Amino acid sequence: MxxxxxxxxxxxxxxxxxxxxxxxxxxxxxxxxxxGRTSRPWQGSTESPAAEVRPEYDATCYLCPGxxxxxxxxxxxxxxxxxxxxxxxxxQPDVAPESIRDGLLQAExxxxxxxxxxxxPRHDLDLASMPPSGIRRVVDLWSDxxxxxxxxxxxxxxxxxRGATMGASNPHPHGQIWAGAALxxxxxxxxxxxxxxxxxxxxxxxxxxxxxxxxxxxxxxxTESWMALVPFWAVWPFEMLVVPKRPVRWLPDLxxxxxxxxxxxxxxxxxxxxxxxxxxxxxxxxxxxxxxPVEDHPHWQLHAHFYPPLLRSATVRKHMVGYELLAEVQRDxxxxxxxxxxxxxxxxxxxx
Length: 352
Ligand code: H2U
Ligand code: ZN
Prior knowledge:
This protein is α+β, with helices and mostly antiparallel strands. A hairpin with a 3-residue loop joins strand 9 and strand 10. The longest helix has 21 residues. The strands form 3 sheets. It has a 9-stranded antiparallel sheet with strand order 3-6-8-7-12-13-11-10-9, with helices on both faces. The protein is built from 6 helices and 14 strands. The chain is globular. The chain binds 5,6-dihydrouridine-5'-monophosphate and zinc ion. The site of 5,6-dihydrouridine-5'-monophosphate has 14 residues, from loops.
């Protein structure tokens, strides 16, 4: 077939209707896509969500200003953001070097640090309902924490679990940071794929990906310096990738304008998430930037992943079970259809 431009090669189809596998360019892993399977009868859980109205201050909340935490420490009367060392940290800094090398048994001690980051003194807010100026303060906090912790750790994972569905223990707006000596599994895969791409092509994998996706069916929202899209290889139904449009290795590299722009983009896309089912959209999100030392990782491009579990309603979520645990992850709705839904949910005046 001849295309309009005279090329003898037909354009790649936007969407494959047959069951197929898509390759995750960032990790090298595959996802099975079986569009149309969602029309099967549903006889699973149907519980309705409890409507939750939160006060601005909750005397029983261990993250509110001035309150006492589980260990007896008292939070300061903070007025902006607040960071403390996790009282139940999974990683500890003073771990002596130890290892096991015994045939197939292998283990390494892992020193590190875990912190809790409060986004706001207001118990009733969250990232989606904070004004862009408040989100901007969180962006600066993320960046400062990464710069600080990467001095003594190889990998600094900034993340947030939003909603009880995703394991958040408290609705007060907060996230976590776990920093450690090793490069964990997920960033290890991304390091390998981005390095290989950079060595083979001399360009950044994710920037070439943005160029290929620009203006296409998987873009959700775009600003001068950022793009939010449902990646071609998305696993979670409404998964999103947020990427700066110029080369940026890690959060501390972001300039002032890019930080403001990110706050505006996050306010936009998180608002869309909450409108999908008219319900605070649960998710795990987190930042992936160059490991430390950053100078040794020119192949990295900063990005955030959003992994929300909801599939068809505020209560029907995707579970990673069966085939997915035993063979390969799978999705029933295409990335393109979900991106189209998220584009429709723009607020008036916000460019989709
Ligand atoms: P999550 O909501 O994502 O679970 O994060 C809350 C963290 O807060 C959790 O890791 C810590 C928990 O260990 N925490 C404290 O450090 N002190 C407390 O008093 C309660 C909870
Ligand atoms: Zn609170």
